[in-house]
Amino acid sequence: MGTLWSKGISATDLVEQFTIGNDKVLDLRLAKYDVLGSKAHIKMLSSISLLDVEEEKILQAELDKILFEIEKGEFIIEEGVEDIHSQVEQILTQRVGEIGKKIHSGRSRNDQVLVDIKLYLKDEIIQLRNEVLDLFNKLQELSEKYKDVLLPGYTHGQIAMPSSFGLWFGAYAETLVDDMQVLLTSYKIANQNPLGSAAGYGSSFPLDRKMTTKLLKFETLNYNSISAQLSRGKSEKIVGYAISAIASTLNKFATDCCEYMCGNYGFISFPDELTTGSSIMPHKKNPDVWELIRGKCNRIQNIPNEITIVCTNMPHGYHRDFQLLKDILFPALDCMHECLKMTIYMIDKIKVNENILNDSKYDYLFTVEEVNKKVLSGIPFREAYKSVGIEINNHTFKSSVDNQAKSVKGLNHTHIGSIGNLCNEEIKEKMDTVLRNF
Predict the structure, then answer these.
(1) Is there a single domain that holds both residue 259 and residue 275?
(2) Are 70 and 119 part of one and the same domain?
(3) Whole domain around residue 267: which residue ranges?
(4) CATH number of the domain to which 244 belongs
């Protein structure tokens, strides 16, 4: 079967298979949005008398039936049909006759695809927003729960200064605020209506683009018809940047967890069922889940680059290259959802070691505390630093912080953002401010 716009020249099966690629599978997730776009479009066509009232009524009823079939999982793209757009139009024509062919008046496949993708991306972004918020709330909860438990801070892989589990969990919570800001930006970019731009140069029909914008619940329009077409690729890339930002945060957190649950650290642990054993070493509890989150998030961080490369060196207007973007972005979105859900699942089972500092190797963790005490007594910083350094070199250093005081409460850290002043409420307000703009 040829395409709906075929001029009578049949492509070979090889060419057709190559040009369609994986589109039929990926297009199924756009089915709902294609129908919603068509419903808004024909309502607008009726308002400008390109469809009469009865024709619109018949088409709306059949589109609702198709939407119901999609929601029940009964909708398929048939053999020989190229994509979702052709399938919907073909079903309508089979069921209601010639008026089914009228739904394409005033639009091109180009703006139809754009509408589908933008509506799909909007829903995906909202789902990601909710998942990121769930993770944020869990990290803040853990930050408060363990705010008084000290954790050795490391720089250059060396024991450095006192940190805390409250500071560690809270750091990733605040980092997610930045990620949410990028996600919000991607939502704003996707939340613009391209319908009516047709092939990129508008239409001689008096299309009511503001009406379809309202019906499809877009915030605004891509006003310029060429600009609407230029948004193809840009919308996908900014969403790619958003999930790349989230992936970067999850990647670093997963790396921390792999290190912290290692026997050489022993800062955290997880139930046996969340770790895996070795085929020959019975003592092993491998962090396979965190390693896979780390690896998957590394792949996700490459998505903006892949999209950029595909979209490079194309003049404005539609090109078939854009079809490849679905193959890049859609699986990456699935992977991002999976990684967020697994991260939440894992940290819900995390167990914190509250006695880390009993190990003598952390005695030097408090050298800066000793330097600061000397400074507070009136000794210049450089002299205090040198004095403590000599004690360390002579192996005579002894911390005045005893085991009983080895908690956040026993240390004098009070400035904003320190282990004694986590500012979790302020960080929550930052997140709430971003969320209010969705």
Answers:
(1) yes
(2) no
(3) 109-204+224-357
(4) 1.20.200.10
DSSP 3-state of 186: helix
Amino acid at 60: Q
CA dihedral (266, 268, 272, 276) in degrees, to 10, reads -70
Which residue bears the tokens 């896979």?
292
Q: In angstroms, how far is the first alpha carbon of the chain from the final one?
A: 44
Pairing of strands 268-269, 158-164: unpaired
Take residue 67 and report the two structure tokens written for it. 């939407």
Whether residue 315 sits in one domain with residue 189: yes
Mean of the per-residue pLDDT values of the chain: 90
β-strand partners of 159: 154
The predicted structure's pLDDT at residue 1: 46
pTM of the model: 0.90
Measured CA to CA, the distance from residue 335 to residue 345 in angstroms comes to 15
SS (H, E, C) 331-351: HHHHHHHHHHHHHHHHHCCCE
Residue bearing the bigger pLDDT, 181 or 284 = 181
- Reduced to 3 states (helix: H, G, I; strand: E, B; else coil), residue 72 is coil
Q: Which of 190, 171, 215 is nearest to 129 (CA)?
A: 190
CB 311 within 8 A of CB 328: no
**C-beta separation of 11 from 19 below 8 A:** yes
